[in-house]
Amino acid sequence: MDLSAYVARFVMGEMDEKEKAQIGDDFKFTYYVTYFNEEQSCGLRMLRLLKEMNSKHFDLVIRLSSQRSARWDQKYLEGVLPASCEKLWICGTPVMNDVFEAAFHHLAPKFPYLKDLEVV
Protein backbone atom coordinates (compact mmCIF):
# COMPACT_ATOMS: atom_id res chain seq x y z
CA MET A 1 0.00 0.00 0.00
CA ASP A 2 3.02 2.33 0.10
CA LEU A 3 2.71 3.04 -3.62
CA SER A 4 -1.03 3.60 -3.22
CA ALA A 5 -0.40 6.08 -0.41
CA TYR A 6 2.15 7.93 -2.56
CA VAL A 7 -0.34 8.17 -5.45
CA ALA A 8 -3.05 9.24 -2.99
CA ARG A 9 -0.88 12.10 -1.75
CA PHE A 10 -0.33 13.22 -5.34
CA VAL A 11 -4.03 13.00 -6.29
CA MET A 12 -5.10 14.85 -3.13
CA GLY A 13 -2.52 17.61 -3.62
CA GLU A 14 -0.64 16.71 -0.43
CA MET A 15 2.87 16.76 -1.93
CA ASP A 16 5.38 19.56 -1.65
CA GLU A 17 6.68 21.25 -4.81
CA LYS A 18 9.84 19.11 -4.93
CA GLU A 19 7.83 15.87 -4.91
CA LYS A 20 5.29 17.20 -7.45
CA ALA A 21 8.11 18.15 -9.81
CA GLN A 22 9.10 14.47 -10.04
CA ILE A 23 5.71 13.56 -11.54
CA GLY A 24 4.62 14.72 -14.98
CA ASP A 25 1.19 16.20 -15.65
CA ASP A 26 0.50 13.27 -17.99
CA PHE A 27 1.00 10.75 -15.16
CA LYS A 28 -1.80 8.22 -14.76
CA PHE A 29 -1.88 5.33 -12.32
CA THR A 30 -4.41 2.64 -13.14
CA TYR A 31 -4.72 0.26 -10.24
CA TYR A 32 -6.04 -3.23 -11.02
CA VAL A 33 -6.88 -5.04 -7.79
CA THR A 34 -8.34 -8.45 -7.23
CA TYR A 35 -9.70 -9.84 -4.01
CA PHE A 36 -11.75 -12.88 -3.13
CA ASN A 37 -14.45 -10.61 -1.69
CA GLU A 38 -14.81 -7.15 -0.20
CA GLU A 39 -14.66 -8.40 3.38
CA GLN A 40 -11.16 -9.84 2.82
CA SER A 41 -9.85 -6.82 0.93
CA CYS A 42 -7.05 -4.61 2.18
CA GLY A 43 -7.08 -0.91 1.33
CA LEU A 44 -10.11 -1.12 -0.96
CA ARG A 45 -11.99 1.64 0.87
CA MET A 46 -9.08 4.06 0.40
CA LEU A 47 -8.79 3.14 -3.28
CA ARG A 48 -12.52 3.69 -3.82
CA LEU A 49 -12.32 7.09 -2.15
CA LEU A 50 -9.49 8.03 -4.50
CA LYS A 51 -11.57 6.92 -7.47
CA GLU A 52 -14.44 9.10 -6.27
CA MET A 53 -12.16 12.15 -6.53
CA ASN A 54 -12.38 11.79 -10.36
CA SER A 55 -8.72 12.62 -10.88
CA LYS A 56 -7.26 12.29 -14.36
CA HIS A 57 -4.23 10.77 -12.64
CA PHE A 58 -5.95 7.75 -11.04
CA ASP A 59 -8.23 4.94 -12.12
CA LEU A 60 -9.35 1.78 -10.34
CA VAL A 61 -10.40 -1.60 -11.74
CA ILE A 62 -11.70 -4.11 -9.20
CA ARG A 63 -12.13 -7.86 -9.63
CA LEU A 64 -13.88 -9.92 -6.96
CA SER A 65 -13.45 -13.63 -7.58
CA SER A 66 -16.36 -14.48 -5.26
CA GLN A 67 -18.60 -12.82 -7.87
CA ARG A 68 -17.18 -15.10 -10.55
CA SER A 69 -15.61 -12.17 -12.37
CA ALA A 70 -13.72 -12.95 -15.56
CA ARG A 71 -10.14 -14.06 -14.95
CA TRP A 72 -7.32 -11.75 -15.88
CA ASP A 73 -5.90 -13.84 -18.68
CA GLN A 74 -4.25 -12.97 -21.99
CA LYS A 75 -7.55 -12.05 -23.66
CA TYR A 76 -8.48 -9.71 -20.81
CA LEU A 77 -5.03 -8.10 -20.71
CA GLU A 78 -5.05 -7.52 -24.46
CA GLY A 79 -8.26 -5.52 -24.04
CA VAL A 80 -7.04 -3.31 -21.20
CA LEU A 81 -3.33 -2.70 -21.82
CA PRO A 82 -2.58 0.87 -22.97
CA ALA A 83 -0.94 1.54 -26.33
CA SER A 84 2.09 2.94 -24.53
CA CYS A 85 3.37 2.64 -21.01
CA GLU A 86 6.55 3.82 -19.27
CA LYS A 87 6.30 1.65 -16.16
CA LEU A 88 4.26 -1.36 -15.22
CA TRP A 89 4.22 -2.83 -11.71
CA ILE A 90 2.71 -6.21 -10.97
CA CYS A 91 2.25 -7.57 -7.50
CA GLY A 92 0.32 -10.78 -7.22
CA THR A 93 0.40 -14.42 -6.37
CA PRO A 94 2.99 -16.62 -8.11
CA VAL A 95 0.23 -18.11 -10.27
CA MET A 96 -0.99 -14.67 -11.37
CA ASN A 97 2.56 -13.54 -12.09
CA ASP A 98 3.11 -16.65 -14.27
CA VAL A 99 -0.12 -16.01 -16.19
CA PHE A 100 0.81 -12.37 -16.76
CA GLU A 101 4.36 -13.18 -17.83
CA ALA A 102 3.15 -15.74 -20.40
CA ALA A 103 0.47 -13.34 -21.67
CA PHE A 104 2.97 -10.48 -21.96
CA HIS A 105 5.32 -12.70 -23.94
CA HIS A 106 2.53 -13.43 -26.46
CA LEU A 107 1.31 -9.82 -26.53
CA ALA A 108 4.74 -8.20 -26.96
CA PRO A 109 4.42 -7.84 -30.77
CA LYS A 110 1.28 -5.72 -30.26
CA PHE A 111 2.60 -3.90 -27.16
CA PRO A 112 6.36 -3.37 -27.68
CA TYR A 113 6.92 -2.10 -24.13
CA LEU A 114 6.21 -5.66 -22.95
CA LYS A 115 9.14 -7.07 -24.92
CA ASP A 116 11.77 -6.94 -22.17
CA LEU A 117 9.42 -6.89 -19.22
CA GLU A 118 10.15 -9.32 -16.44
CA VAL A 119 7.39 -10.04 -13.97
CA VAL A 120 8.81 -10.31 -10.47
Poorly predicted ranges (pLDDT <50, ≥5 residues)? Answer: none
SS summary, helix count: 5
Strand content: 5-15%
Helix and strand succession? HHEHEHH
Helix content: 25-40%
Number of domains: 2
Q: What's the count of strands?
A: 2
Descriptive report:
The chain has 5 helices and 2 strands; from the N terminus they run ααβαβαα. The mean pLDDT is 87. It starts with a helix and ends in a 13-residue tail after the last helix. The protein is globular. It has 120 residues and is α+β, with helices and mostly antiparallel strands. Strands 1-2 form a two-stranded parallel ribbon. It folds into 2 domains: 1-69, no CATH class; 71-120, no CATH class.
Give a quick precis of the structure.
This protein has helices at 2-11, 17-21, 44-52, 74-80, 94-107, and strands at 29-35, 58-64. It has 120 residues and is α+β, with helices and mostly antiparallel strands. The chain has two domains: 1-69, no CATH class; 71-120, no CATH class.
Helix and strand topology:
Layout: H1 2-11, H2 17-21, E1 29-35, H3 44-52, E2 58-64, H4 74-80, H5 94-107
Parallel strand pairs: 1-2
Helix pairs in contact: 4-5
Provide the descriptors you would attach to this structure in a database record.
single chain, 120 residues, alpha+beta, two-stranded parallel sheet, 5 helices, 2 strands, 38% helix, 12% strand, globular
